Every structure is written in C-alpha cells, then in structure tokens.
Automatic annotation (TrEMBL):
Protein name, entry field: Adenine DNA glycosylase
Gene3D superfamilies: Helix-hairpin-Helix base-excision DNA repair enzymes (C-terminal), Hypothetical protein, domain 2, Nucleoside Triphosphate Pyrophosphohydrolase
Superkingdom as given in the UniProt entry: Bacteria
Its job: Adenine glycosylase active on G-A mispairs. MutY also corrects error-prone DNA synthesis past GO lesions which are due to the oxidatively damaged form of guanine: 7,8-dihydro-8-oxoguanine (8-oxo-dGTP).
Organism of provenance: Roseibium limicola
Length: 354
DNA sequence: AATCCGTGGAT
DNA sequence: TATCCAAGGAT
C-alpha cells in the first residue's frame, strides 16, 4: 500500500462523505469552479481552535454577517468584536483576530499571505492555522496537523510515543501523505475522518476507508491511541462577585477587566480576587460601595482551563446618590445580552438578579 | 519548556 | 458527578 494510494482512497471517501459546513467549499462546488475565500477560511480556523464545530457555527455566521470582509473587520471597533465573541472562550483569540485583520488590511493591502511562513507571522496564527489556511485557501501542500490528525495518524502508524512528544513524527507522517493535488481537501478529509469515524472512543473502524491498513486496527490497539502525558489536576479557587442594582430599573453595575490574562478585556461585575485560600468572611471589604449587601444562596460554579471556581454572589441596591466610578457603568436589563460578558459572568449576573 | 488561556457536549 | 476533549497560540 503506497501512501499515494492511501491518499486517493481518502479523497474518494471525502468526495462522498464530506461534512457540509458554512465555511467549506464542497468538492462538487470546487469542481464547478468555486474557490475558498481566505478571509472566511481564516475566520473559521481561528474560531475552531480548541473549539467544536457545533459551538462555532452560529458565531461564524454572525461574524460573517456583521463583517463580510477583512476590511469590515479591520475597521470595526474592538469593543464590538469582543461583544460578538462573548461566550466562545479563549478571548485572546478575538483580540488577535482584530489585530490580524488590521495588519492584513492596512499593511498587506487586504490580502492574506499564501505561505505558512508568511501566515505564521500574523497574530493568532500558529503552525496549525498557517498550514490549514495555506492548504485550504491557497491549495498549497502544507502538512495540516490538529488533534484529529494526531489521533488518526497515531492509529494509522500505531505511534505509541505519548503526545505531545509524538508531534514531530506525526507532522512528518502527514507531510508524507499530503498530496500536491487537492492538499486542502486532503487535510479536511483527515479531520472529517477523525471527527466522524476515527473518534477518541469507540472508533467506527468498519466504516473507515483506511481500515485495511491501519496498524492500530490490525493489532487491536486503536482505542488506546493516541497516548497522552498525564495532566495535573485542577485546584479550586474561590471568590466573591457583587451585583449592584440601580433601584429605579434594576440595571446592573459592570466594569471592564484588564486587557491581558484571564478573560482579558471582557466585561464583569465587580468582584474580589480568586484564590485557593480565599476568605469569604472578609468579602465585603472589597465591595464596590458600602451598601446593604446580602449573600445569595446559590454559589456559582465554573471550570476554567486550569482551575475550578466557586463564586459567592452578593446583591445590594445602590445607595442614594451613587454614581458609577471611572471604568464602571450601568447596564439595563435589556442591554445585558449585548455586553461582552463571558459565560462565568453571565452566570454571576443571573444568580445576582434572580 | 511549561504554563496560561473558556466553554459546552459527550461519556 | 467527574473527566475528557475540540480545526491551538502566546509567552
């Protein structure tokens, strides 16, 4: 079995089973002359970083409607971009998305680089995304390696070296397999295979176009691959959040988080620091204003990438004559949906007002 | 090199 | 309920 034969078998499978996705130009449409738009491919790839297709779809369509071209996005207020991204997570992606759009529009005459090297210099574009854009949007034979490809190839070649140590070997294997003809379709084919057939648990090997020459399948180890280095457990941090309500209409006091770090640049209700050894008893020392604070019964629980959070929620009506300090503002109930509130803060607001 | 950075669905 | 993990990148 030559690698070129494997390649054509998978492309034939892709011609029949390619998923229909909003950002994808199907093999049939390509045959009819339609070409991928680099802006749309880039936008989808950034959104898809560490994020499921299902979670991305609505955000992608919303972004495309708000900003149909890289010029539109480059000229948009960053605040609007953060609001549109709110809830999707990994908010540095949104800030880098905006920066990248500005670079492409104002320094590169509105055109994305077509090589991996050129793409890699742009904010928010790393080795995976550069290869994906190069292959899918510009038809260049780049070796695209994401989590799906790592899983599929570690099984195909029965690579037992744990990730991430196995990455160079997998990258080399993908480079060997990737054809000069239809490299973008091939990359998407391997990713579709990983997403629909060669899944982490209970892979559907009987449906796989590569089943006959998959080493792990033949030796019965597919389920156990890829191996991964053990990850350390998450500590639990605690803190308090303060939901201050404007007596007249119930508007909620909000403020902006610092531009970098966790939830950087996003909107929040005022709160304490989050720490493992947090002392809830002293919470009110950190309240935005002296008021008639009452602790809510429900504690908001939320899990981030590297820690669990238990957030105690306090509520109070704003004292007479209170005006929001610098960097704070009132958000009326019907405006809350439009704020750049990350999910944990939506939970906090909900727990505070209900 | 190791750590930081969200979220929600599947199991 | 707890864990995994999904089209990773920046520092």
């Amino acid at each position: 079995m030559s690698s070129s034969s494997r390649t054509s078998e998978l492309l034939a499978w892709y011609d029949r089973h390619a998923r229909t996705l909003p950002w994808r130009v199907s093999p049939k449409a390509q045959a009819a002359g339609e070409r991928a738009d680099p802006y749309r491919i880039w936008l989808s790839e950034v959104m898809l970083q560490q994020t499921t297709v299902a979670a991305v779809k609505d955000y992608y369509l919303k972004f495309l409607q708000l900003w149909p071209t890289v010029e539109d996005l480059a000229k948009a207020p960053e605040e609007d971009v953060m609001k549109a991204w709110a809830g999707l997570g990994y908010y540095s992606r949104a800030r880098n998305l905006k920066k990248c759009a500005e670079t492409v529009e104002f320094e590169l005459h509105g055109r994305f680089p077509d090589t991996e090297e050129g793409l890699c210099t742009l904010p928010g574009i790393g080795p995976y995304t550069a290869a994906a854009i190069s292959a899918i949007a510009f038809n260049r034979p780049a070796a695209v390696v994401d989590g799906n490809v790592e899983r599929v190839l570690s099984r195909l070649y029965e690579i037992t070296t744990p990730l991430p140590n196995a990455k160079p070997e997998i990258k080399a294997g993908m480079a060997k397999l990737t054809p000069f003809d239809r490299p973008g379709d091939f990359a998407q084919a391997v990713m579709d295979l990983g997403a629909t057939i060669c899944t982490p648990k209970n892979p559907a090997c009987v449906l796989c176009p590569w089943t006959a020459n998959c080493k792990a399948r033949l030796s019965g180890t597919a389920q156990t691959l890829p191996r991964k280095l053990p990850k350390k457990q998450k500590p639990t941090r605690a803190g308090s959040a303060f939901v201050l309500l404007r007596p007249a209409d119930g508007a909620v006091l909000l403020r902006r988080r610092p531009p970098k770090g966790l939830l950087g640049g996003m909107t929040e209700v005022p709160g304490t620091e989050w720490a493992v050894d947090f002392d809830t008893a002293s919470s009110l020392d950190f309240a935005p204003v002296a008021a008639d604070w009452h602790k809510r019964l429900a504690v908001v629980k939320h899990t981030f990438t590297h820690f669990h959070l238990e957030l105690t929620i306090w509520r109070a009506p704003a004292p007479a004559g209170y005006t929001p300090p610098e960097g704070h503002w009132w958000s009326s109930r019907d405006m809350l949906d439009d704020e750049a509130l990350p999910t944990v803060m939506r939970k906090a607001v909900t727990a505070g007002v209900e």
